[in-house]
Amino acid sequence: MPTQAWAVAATLAATVCAAFAAFLLKRGVAETHLALRGFRVSGKVVAAVALYGAASGLFLLALTGAQLSVLVPLSAVEYVWVALLARQRLGEPIGRAKLAGLACIALGIVLVGLGS
Length: 116
Description:
Elements: H1 5-29, E1 33-35, E2 38-40, H2 43-63, H3 68-74, H4 77-90, H5 96-114
Antiparallel strand pairs: 1-2
Helix pairs in contact: 1-2, 1-4, 3-5, 4-5
């Protein structure tokens, strides 16, 4: 099956949704309270779960337009989005080793794309 451009776009959109979901989980877990009589969940956690659902839906749609062996490696770009979000919004550092790892991910995505 040839890779459709819309399937690639849907996969990239899914990775953005999943990255923002991870960010919201990180922010929302501090606002979630567990107790013996129940728990209160942050709105950020609820939004994160919804975004993960949207990401899954987009990926399911994408699977109808491209090979699994193309889309799964492409979904690794989520790690890049998460690192950038964590740096920008949470102040997490991106050291040389992490930067090298992110570059390897990007290179791997390109190589898989060229090979299909």
